[in-house]
Amino acid sequence: MTAPALDSSHSLDTARATMRETFGYPDFRPGQDEVIAAVLGGRDVLAVMPTGAGKSMCYQLPALVREGLTVVVSPLIALMRDQVAQLRTNGVAAGALNSANDQEENDRVRDALRTGALQLLYISPERLVNNGTAEWLARSGARLLAIDEAHCVSQWGHDFRPEYAALGDVRRRLGDIQTIALTATADIATRGDIAGQLFTQEPTTFVHGFDRPNLYLAMEPRTDRSRQILRFLEKHRGESGIVYCASRKATETLAQTLSDKGVTALAYHAGIESQERSRRQDRFLREDGIVMVATVAFGMGIDKPDVRFVVHAALPKSIEAYYQEIGRAGRDGAPADTLTLYGLEDIRLRRTQIEESNASDEQKRIERQRLDALVSLCEAPQCRRQTLLSYFGESAEPCGHCDLCLGGVTRFDATIEAQKILSAIARTGERFGAEHIVAILVGEESEQVRRHGHHGLKTFGVGKDRPKQAWRSLMRQIYAAGLVQIAIDDHGRWRITERGDAVLRGRERITLRSDVLESGKSGKGTKERRAGAIAESGIAPDDPVLARLKALRMQLAREQEVPAYVIFTDRSLVDMALMRPRDRTELAACHGVGQAKLTRYGDVFLEALREVQA
């Protein structure tokens, strides 16, 4: 939408100059300028911006260029701590109030609030909704309320949190101060709910593109989970990443399997004791090369910019959840990799969870639609990014940067194969699940097949020409195409739809993908993708200059007990390794080198560059 006219004395030029001096960024990222202009103009704002688009800058810069306190609602203590550390490293007066602080730190923050010295205060929604906190902050000069992960406000959102729902009342107790709500994922229903919950009047709303062009998108049928993930991780040795699992037990088992194969892997789920969970999260945030094997309890608000990959070992909850979770990779804008493994059992489980939930009929209907869209993305016949963006209402050309674009898709007239499946379903009375149908097709006399006499059916063994894995893929595809339904409330029985009946009786033909029928097959393009990543960054991951800078960064981070990216991000180090600055003036031209960091770290990094080039 068109940027609103500024009606304050502060200009975007002032904000841009402040950003260059403080953070070392040469200019706004796409979309930041209009959001910042609206905030500086005194507007209430709802901003939907993709992860990595620089949402935090949309409230941090206004906090720096005008007077008054900005209160930032943040969902995780670890996130608050690291963002405050990063701001302080850049010379910004920031603080946080949370239960992890010692008394001395909380006293220091309160003193800064009393004297008006604090520019940004990070606080959890739980603490903010407590009686008296909002009123106290109002007396401390709070001028702007920034709500991160704002989709948590909405029951339509995929991460609804009850304490977020109380933030509308908090805003009123703060004196109806100006508010900016930010999120990376919110469909039309969720955006409407956020606006209604938080604002008394319609906010200025910005919905920027959902595309994350630096992310490589890939999906493949799950055949041997551990082997597939280990093969993927071979391309990412020494890099940080997240592997999402569907259960606590799965995280423990997979983390142990990866560790046994020499991967530095940590399990993370809500069942782990709180202190140990925090310790593991800190290791992931502060060290390079950690693979976090986690449930979705891990990730919201994680601000580590150099996560180089995200793997889903099982189907995500929805397209929104998928988008949010893969968005934790490549926040620094550098190339990052994603892989999703999926199977029929995942789909059945997700449908069961929807039907057995306490949600309203309307919410269940929406969740079914979201799951159907995700299944269609898994079995998409064309560019994955096109399919993903179309869900969010955007059109795009083929991206050339996903498994389907690089590997290509081959299709064939699968009417006969579909008829074989549908005939087996019909001849067994639509009373059985996928594995039983597959056994009939390949002629496997399992105990259940013999017990029901299905080895005598005309369809028994008609699919011997294809392996089980191929028939499973074909069944997923006819499900995605709407030829069958899975009766979730009736033991996962497969039932033929009206369209499926038309195919069965020869009134309609069906075309399906053949490239996913081979067991364990994934798209081509692995070498091309890794080579492209190196070309895009301009430097190889094992470049000796880059390695020396990373080692120095890690040393400083450990000494200061902060995450490595707080010192400098990977993107900054890549710039230094490519540009080889010889003095402070040249170093200041590198990405992310603001005045405070130049003063604090400039000489030691210049010395390291001289040593490695000597």
Assign the CATH class of the largest domain: Alpha Beta
Count of helical segments? Answer: 29
Estimated helix fraction: 40-55%
Radius of gyration: 26 Å
Question: How many discrete structural domains?
Answer: 4
CATH topology grouping of the largest domain: Rossmann fold
Major β-sheet profile: 7 strands, parallel
Terminal Cα span: 52 Å
Average pLDDT? 86
Keywords: ATP-binding, DNA damage, DNA recombination, DNA repair, DNA-binding, Helicase, Hydrolase, Isomerase, Metal-binding, Nucleotide-binding, Zinc
Enzyme class: isomerase
Catalytic activity: Couples ATP hydrolysis with the unwinding of duplex DNA by translocating in the 3'-5' direction
Protein name: DNA helicase RecQ
Task: Give an overview of the whole structure.
- The protein is α/β, with parallel strands linked by helices.
- The protein folds into four domains: 12-207, P-loop containing nucleotide triphosphate hydrolases (Rossmann fold, 3-Layer(aba) Sandwich), CATH 3.40.50.300; 215-407, Rossmann fold; 411-513, Winged helix-like DNA-binding domain superfamily/Winged helix DNA-binding domain (Arc Repressor Mutant, subunit A), CATH 1.10.10; 540-613, HRDC domain (DNA polymerase, domain 1).
- Helices cover 47% and strands 13% of the residues.
- The strands form four sheets. The chain has a seven-stranded parallel β-sheet with strand order 3-4-2-5-6-1-7, with helices on both faces. Strands 8, 9, 10, 11, 12, 13 and 14 form a seven-stranded parallel β-sheet that branches. A two-stranded antiparallel sheet has the order 15-18.
- Helix 14 links the parallel strand 13 and strand 14 (336-342).
- Helix 16 packs antiparallel against helix 17 (384-391) and helix 19 packs across helix 23.
- The protein is globular and about 85 Å long.
- The two termini are 52 Å apart.
- The model is unreliable at 1-9 and 519-535 (pLDDT under 50).
- GO terms for molecular function: helicase activity.
- Residues 36-204 form the Helicase ATP-binding domain.
- Residues 225-372 form the Helicase C-terminal domain.
- Belongs to the helicase family. RecQ subfamily.
- Its cofactor is Mg(2+); Zn(2+).
